[in-house]
Amino acid sequence: MVELAETAPRQLRAHARRNRDRILAVARDAFANRNGDISLNEVARRAGVGTGTLFRHFPNRDALLEALMHDRTEALCTEAERLLGVPADDAGSALFEWLTDLVDHVAAYQGVSAVLLAEQDADSALHAACHAVDQAATSLLRRAQQTGAVRADLAPDELISLIGAISWVKEQAPDRDAHVRALLTVMIDGLRTSPPRTRSASAR
Amino acid sequence: MVELAETAPRQLRAHARRNRDRILAVARDAFANRNGDISLNEVARRAGVGTGTLFRHFPNRDALLEALMHDRTEALCTEAERLLGVPADDAGSALFEWLTDLVDHVAAYQGVSAVLLAEQDADSALHAACHAVDQAATSLLRRAQQTGAVRADLAPDELISLIGAISWVKEQAPDRDAHVRALLTVMIDGLRTSPPRTRSASAR
DNA sequence: ACCTGAACACCGTTCAAGT
DNA sequence: ACCTGAACACCGTTCAAGT
To answer: Per the confidence metrics, is the pTM higher than 0.70?
Structure first.
């Protein structure tokens, strides 16, 4: 009897998890950036669950996005960890390589770049994930700056904004890879530039 | 009697024009980027007109935005005309100065940077305005490239995307002037860089 | 413990009815 | 010729009712 009392909820949980997975599968396909946007109700409908079910699993769109992106976010963070161990001479290209991956990641789903820019009081899970990415970017940037590969007058949040901006462009035109790569090239060249032009310290 | 027949519609038109102006006044204030977003119905309510009235004057949000921005857009285009006459040595700084103004202009109202990026079949008036800006930017860019002030491997639509991207950041954080100026600095330094790094011609 | 689906407040947009 | 405001189809979100 004790086992039965355990079994029943376990089956329920299995059912619940199946619902969760079906929602994620539908959302992964429907939110993918080339496929245009879709309402959350429509996601629920396609997944064959009630609207309420979707909203209990994922209280808002951000939560759903975070779940969709979770694994790749983690992979990106561990990759950053690895790149921090690279020889000092490669600190610059390590940063640039990682930023290129980051742009792809952020641009994968609609609306993520906007979350990246908003340094909101991180209540949502997606904000937390963005914060982890921030940390990784900051470490890679600092190292690249210390080795002289990247201009010293660039703050971490400025780098994040630059990445968010380019990710947003990719979000708007997901099929124009060459275009986005060109923007990245310009930006990276701008990062390499040593700053002879003085920026007013008071403005910081 | 002939005069009366003319007078009556003229009064109507005056009334209509007053309505139009009240809508614009409300929208100008409510759509200004620090003031957050507002629904079109709410604009109509605040202007004291019916929803239908608003939608006949401005068939969609873009039309309303275009009307709001029209004068400044024109000013920007004539300014570009003037800057094209500047000595060749100043062609680079002329471009950079103008781009800085453009960012302020595009970021003034929510959603304009997205329109700038979308090279849609220009049905809306706002698209037409963006196209005029495109033309001006292209001319200034070409001249700056010919004088060697700006890297030659940059296409006009790539420049527009870069500007749109930075405008979008400003749109997201309208009160962070120093931040946005830093991004512009990086971008402009990237534009100045001559391209020793070869970009694959096949990708273009 | 989990799910359903009607319901709510809102959005942009349309259109019959008025003057 | 111009305006009004109810109406429509939609959105994200909630919640009473079910199993």
So the answer is: yes
Domains, chain B, ranges and CATH?
1-59 (1.10.10), 61-196 (1.10.357.10)
Calpha distance B64→B67 (Å, rounded): 5
The kind and range of the H/E element at A137 are helix A125-146
pLDDT at residue A56, rounded to an integer:
95
Where does chain B have alpha helices with state H? 2-31, 40-47, 51-57, 61-83, 91-106, 112-117, 125-146, 156-172, 177-192
Tell me: the pLDDT tens digits for B165-203? 999 999 999 999 999 999 999 999 999 976 554 444 433
pLDDT, tens digit (0-9, with 9 covering 90-100), for B3-49: 334 445 566 678 889 999 999 999 999 999 888 889 999 999 999 99
A197 vs B contacts (CB less than 8 Å): 185, 189
CB crowding A147-169: b at 16 or more within 10 Å, else e = bebbbebbebbbbbbbbbbbbbb
CA-to-C1' span, A39 to D8 (A): 18
CB contact under 8 A, A179 and B189: no
Cβ-defined contact of A190 to B195 (cutoff 8 Å): no
DSSP class of B32: B
Shortest Cα distance from A183 to chain B (angstroms)?
Answer: 7
